[in-house]
Specification:
The protein contains no helices and eleven strands. It has strands at residues 3-7, 10-12, 18-25, 34-39, 45-51, 58-60, 68-73, 78-83, 92-98, 101-102, 106-110.
Length: 112
Amino acid sequence: EVQLQASGGGLVQPGGSLRLSCAASGFTFGSYDMSWVRQAPGKGPERVSAINSGGMRTYYANSVRGRFTISRDNAKNTLYLQMNNLKPEDTGVYYCKKGDMRGQGTQVTVSS
């Protein structure tokens, strides 16, 4: 059974940082491209970042480029998202995805 469990969210002030993690199991993690998506209240999902299976190619949405960094540790079956200089518009539930499958998300709230 494929499981994707995101963690590391929380409440942070504008300008702050968070590091999200996604623990993956049930599949050969190192063989798959992975991504992070977020969903803000009342809005549709937005893909914020993606990384290829080997970790050498990445994608960032314009809204987060230069502030977020995606990475992965294939030995630990874990995907990461380092988020710096957070803004209120980054608020939402963050999910990691394998293809069309997403796991349980983690809430990120950016507010003063």
